[in-house]
Amino acid sequence: MPGDPNDLLSAYARSLGISVHDFDEDRVPVLTIDFSPIIEGRPGAFHGGATSGLLETAGYAALRAVLIGKERNPQLKPINITVQFLSAGKQKKTFAQGRITRLGRRNANVTVEAWQDDRDRPIATAVMNILMADRTS
To answer: What is the pTM of this model?
Structure first.
């Protein structure tokens, strides 16, 4: 893992207020974001773009954490990201975590869930297909 867990996050994610809340037993990060005016959509609800940004960030953070553990550092490029909005995010802390469903040499498939009070009742989910390109010097 990097020295600071938030190094797993992009500048965009940090600008929204997304941070690493915790790690599960497999060292996969659980991300969180507090409700604030910068992520409000309709009055009192999370903006869909902020929800999507949290899901995408959690997916990439999960993949980066696993790749760091395998001493790999490829450039990650999205192939496809599909988001399903299940219910409106309320004015409270929201969590998200990605799970690697397939990790190949050049491609990865990741599923992500976002929830608020109850992890078993997600407010949104995502499926991500990611190309892992070799970095050139």
So the answer is: 0.89
Number of domains in the chain: 1
Q: How many Å apart are CA 34 and CA 39, to the nearest integer?
A: 9
Bridge partner list, 31: 20, 96
- What is the β-pairing status of strands 94-103 and 75-85? unpaired
**CATH number of the domain bearing residue 47:** 3.10.129.10
Distances from the Cα of 100 to the Cα of 74, 91, 123, 137, angstroms: 16, 29, 20, 28
Domain residue limits at 22: 5-133
DSSP state of 129: E
CB within 8 Å of 95: residues ≥ 6 apart = 21, 30, 31, 32, 114, 115, 116, 119
Report, as an integer, the average pLDDT of 10-36: 89
SS3 assignment, position 55: helix
